[in-house]
């Protein structure tokens, strides 16, 4: 239903908005009022406000004369309510459109339906607009086709090209077929797609084209008029088809023109903003397309005539005597076509005469030279015919630049004139120009290859990758055929691996079958080691070829709709299709890996091969940002377009041409950028002295930053030394950064023993399992043998409570493995693994000191910070005052359910021997300890989720203040875990990984306190039954002591050292959590070793918390080892969502809760991709440090509420942090950005401007752009004296959007000459709202592109982007840079942003 209001010509609302007016039954006066106010689109209406009140206020501001709403107040309110209802509908539509578009982008097979009433309204509007146009069923578009065009236009923003068979009319029955989804993330999902219907006649083609253009008017894309283009095109096409009969001709010309329109509308959107403009451009300025179609048709006729064996006399038809027909009109165009056909007919006659003469000459055995063809240059013809040779006549056209059009049907021999005899050619082919005259014989080159190639066959290739690394990297050719490219590459001095093919030839003396799993595993292992810098795949096309047709020859096995294979094939054909798919998968797998490791590849197949339509190839082309290079092999000297022999035989010119490029990549991949390397800044413009350095002080978090870098992200600005520490010229800076390995690709600096364990589990998988079984049997025997010694040494201790804790039993006879602290086994195992912590067994036996200096381990570095430590004696002198204060505090604790829980847990400790008590009075404690200067510690409750834990406050009683830390504790972090996993995946890319987790039970309680230090570990706790304070004396360590952290982690680190060094586990320890990652083949043995070792040593663990999984949860983080990504633990995610929902529902957030929530969200952010979402922490951080609430309550403001909503979206479905392969490789591209704002002191007022330059080693020319910053973007910025920071921040954002095609999925180095911008982007948020918004846009854009961006600073003098930022584009153009138009993210003009 559309409103029928008559509007002014320039103020007519869009159809969707008029549909809303109609459905809401808005009065015509209100419709005109809205149109007069500029509300012409759904989008404009949706932007009126956030709620109904703000919308009404905005409408009143837009219409100063409120009387236009109505004569009195009730009428005005009713009118405003009616328009508010329109706003509500428009807002809902916008959200619906956005959600629908996102779903359609996720799954292109989904086509949303158009309601029947809307479709009927489309037809009604069209009929009313065009009463002279009939809509019979064979010309009216099918509803399904209209829905598809609407879907495609909504998703992509332009009209796609549709084959004629895809255009459906209402009289057709649409059949659907089952196929595989083309979504790269869901390749195996079965979907239903429409089966195209081929056109059977010229009239049917014209009908379908009418339906296509009618569809465009249905959807308000393009009017069905002569002025807009469709009727003009249909008229010209109709005239053309009457002059050029034939269905194939009509389809050819229509395809050429509509494909050109599609390319113009998609590639030049700024110049041609709509479909009509693109269509008119093609019809006006691309008239050569009509001739191209004719030329193609005439060429087909020419070939068909040549294949005719004998002339045939056509049947004479009776002349039509009817006089009713009028003679055809003679136009200049028809005269021109008639003359052209006469010329072509004459050329055809000459060609037949030439063939006849040559045939007669061959029969007579004469050697008369053929007469020159007019199409061949005279000098070239003379050169060709000047060669002397004997034997069958050689085709001269085959040897000229024109090429022979007859192919295999040619009656003369296709062989090069002037080709040297076999065995003579020994020199390298010229690099500058390689012709057929330089083609060598295969036999001669076999000797040359055998002489220089150390491994002529794969049987002789070393299995040790270390031996190969000495000679690599290599060129490798898969499906090599006769290995022409390998030969040519090797002749240029480039190391090559033996070519891979199953067909034997001179250069393939032994077959190598990629179907063989062992052969393929060997090849992939070499590629995974980074030893192949260039890969060529001549993937067989026998099943993908478009030459298979239903014409009596080999039947088709695939189609465009089913490129993976047609259903219902014969068993023999199914085998062929299976092998073809396997070859394709092998090719794609190898190419993906070579590209991921920084190499390059080529895949060769015919242009019309169906291999390009497969999901695997489409995914490869998109993921590798590959280029398509189309060429005919006849241009390199062959009479064919594609080799048809049983093996790949490329022309030597093609092999040599490719070899030159491959050799250039091997020697210097940046040679094409040499002009840019010479760029310099004039001396008088330089701000800093050339080759000067900036001092850089080693950051205290440098080690942490290195681990973060190895895990794939940056910690903070300045934590690591910048890439460019020397002042250089711009050209030298470009060269330097391009040759630096991408920081994220560098392998982690793991500890030597951990690296050795990684190597063992990967390269000795089967052996290490047997070795561990042998070691388990040995050490279990030693544990039993040493058990009496441990019991004896424990029983020698004078303290009964200490003996009870160490034995794990009341008497020595009850002690057994699993309960006893096996100090003798500790001592022997630590000695066997060469541990530096030799004092640990004695400390375990006698107990650890908990005040004063913490006993050093020699394992960790010295503690670097200054500490304020009080003497122990000072605390002892205040023992009575401290005791009185603590007891008084405990007495005031109310009795609660949580107090009862920690009381029960303390009594459980007494039963297990880690605690003594309860003591009802202080005198009892004094008697038990033998001294009266003991200091109690208050035990209070800590609620962790659904668990209550007792914590001892050792700060208020000075216990922690009299403890001195001696070493800096170093524990594995999430970054260390990710770095180890990256290394493991790099070493074993094909292996399935598993993780194991072990959690010790009451870990601190198992470590004894030295008996004379128990006076510092007295616990004071209220008895909930008597409501009075009582005392307990800890035998094990308390939770809350600083010393407990170091003393326990000392034991934990020792056990982990045993696991790594003695048993070869890839293991880590973080407090009481022990875990590790290994291939699935050895992970169960690792878990078994961890369990047994802990049992032998007496470190008790919780059986219920043991894990062996492909998705282990470690410290609240889930490591998805199948998808190789980090995920927020499900329980933690649910808790965060519940907490944020509670805050949003209450509308309140106090500073304390904000601080806790921020900490949880920052931890959650570490499991999300990049820095996405960190900008939304700013509002929460501000509330954390807010002291004075507005109106007496800490209510949520708009910014804070938006931050919480955005974080809720991120926590619920944010992008996980990936764990990719770590292999050192060059950056895919380097981007320099800069911003410019005029000096306020300068009288010259220049506009604010940004610029950027992209250097991609796979692009022939760097790209640059410059852009003036629009005022609409700056309107959202905060006021400043100078806006240089947001301008500099804007440049990287626009650069990512502009260079998106080369940034997507790439390793990028981004260089900025602003420290403020560099630091803010790396950190992920800022204290300024507008900067925070820009940061969020940057990381959302990086997320959508999945770009791995390393950000660093470059000095202004060395920054080549300084020139485009000042509109000095000639500097780049002079050295070959191409200038592109900038692309601005739309969100920059909205002033709002959400997660990507």
From TrEMBL:
Keywords from the named record: Metal-binding, Zinc, Zinc-finger
Q: Which PROSITE patterns match?
A: ZF_C3H1 (PS50103)
What does the record give under GO molecular function? Answer: zinc ion binding
In residue numbers, where are the C3H1-type zinc fingers?
Answer: 389-417
Q: Where is this region: Disordered?
A: 304-379
Per its UniProt record, what InterPro entries does this chain match?
A: Hepadnavirus_pol/RT, Znf_CCCH
Give all residue intervals belonging to the C3H1-type domain: 389-417
The protein's superkingdom reads Eukaryota
Biased composition (Polar residues) is annotated at 306-315
UniProt biased composition (Basic residues):
332-344
What is the protein's given name? C3H1-type domain-containing protein
Organism for this UniProt entry: Cladocopium goreaui
Q: What is the lineage of its organism?
A: Eukaryota, Sar, Alveolata, Dinophyceae, Suessiales
